[in-house]
Write a structure and sequence with these properties.
306 residues, alpha+beta, 5 helices, 15% helix
Length: 306
């Protein structure tokens, strides 16, 4: 039996978790004009879909901050939209969510210095008056693996993982194909598709191989472990279908992940996962800070989300 688990369910249950695949940014890297190619600074153009996907995973490792949006359907919450800005080191996040499960209301969350802060019209509390606009709880972790994450249900489980890691899950696929070239945010974007399974990710984790035919990525064992942990967050059943679009530099530009929810997680069908994540700006100058102390009250002294 394979299924994902909540962080507090224990590692043994988590490792049986359902497969999760997320669109990895693969990568056909745009070349300079004839006679202008810089062969010393730019590695050779990937020659196979698997190599392009692996290159994109390597490129994502160097991204330090990201502005992105999420659109689609989340298991148990229905349609959802989110806009977010994150940093990789340290791991911080500022995200605003809306959607049908929120009844037209808005929820803003921040993760800074090991604490979670939440604000918005979705929160209900007679104590959120005057300058008191935020609730907080700690310890809180966003962007970690299936065990580390703790968002106090303010962020859907599937959005608790970093999109920089989620975008590399396609390296665990054995059937990556180039579908064609699409326009994404006005750019010609190579479009790759593949399926990711629990067994495939386990195999790539054990062997260090990230593509088919023995092609390996350059992110190393630690990156493989992070991918597997992020995959478990999605709590879906095999197989997960992943589409990935790359920018002209071979970096992730957009990815889509689709799969059925693994009913073993909750004993009921909470609907499918179908999320599209679009990278709006790579390495923006950003600083995510905690709200002023006099605007914050502890979550336990307030009220949780309805």
């Amino acid at each position: 039996m394979r299924h994902g688990s909540r962080p507090d369910a224990g590692r043994s249950a988590m490792v049986r978790g359902a497969l999760v695949a997320v669109l990895l940014a693969g990568g056909a890297v745009g070349c300079a004009g004839d006679g202008e190619a810089d062969t010393t600074d730019r590695p050779p153009r990937p020659t196979t879909p698997a190599a392009a996907v692996n290159r994109a995973a390597e490129e994502s490792e160097s991204i330090t901050s990201l502005r992105y949006e999420v659109r689609g359907t989340v298991s148990g919450r229905g349609r959802l939209e989110a806009e977010a800005t994150m940093t990789a080191q340290p791991s911080t996040l500022s995200m605003t969510q809306t959607g049908e499960a929120y009844r037209g209301l808005r929820l803003e969350t921040r993760f800074v210095d090991g604490a979670m802060y939440a604000s918005g019209s979705l929160l209900r509390s007679d104590k959120l008056v005057g300058r008191k606009k935020w609730v907080t709880a700690a310890p809180a972790v966003w962007g970690g693996g299936a065990i580390e994450n703790q968002s106090y249900l303010m962020v859907p489980r599937q959005l608790e993982g970093s999109p920089l890691v989620q975008s590399t899950l396609l390296t665990g696929s054995r059937d990556v194909k180039l579908i064609g070239t699409d326009k994404v945010r006005g750019k010609d974007a190579p479009h790759y598709r593949g399926t990711v399974t629990y067994d495939g990710l386990i195999a790539s984790l054990k062997t260090g191989k990230t593509g088919k035919a023995g092609e390996s990525g350059g992110a190393g064992e630690d990156a493989g472990t992070r991918r597997f942990d992020h995959f478990l967050n999605l709590e879906v059943a095999d197989p997960l279908t992943m589409d990935l679009w790359l920018d002209p530099d071979g970096r992730p530009l957009q990815f889509r992940m689709r799969a059925a929810y693994d009913k073993k997680n909750a004993g009921q069908d909470l609907g499918p996962l179908d999320l599209t994540v679009t990278f709006l700006e790579i390495d923006p100058r950003t600083s995510i800070k905690a709200p002023p102390p006099d605007t914050v009250i502890p979550l336990k002294d307030s009220a949780r989300r309805d």
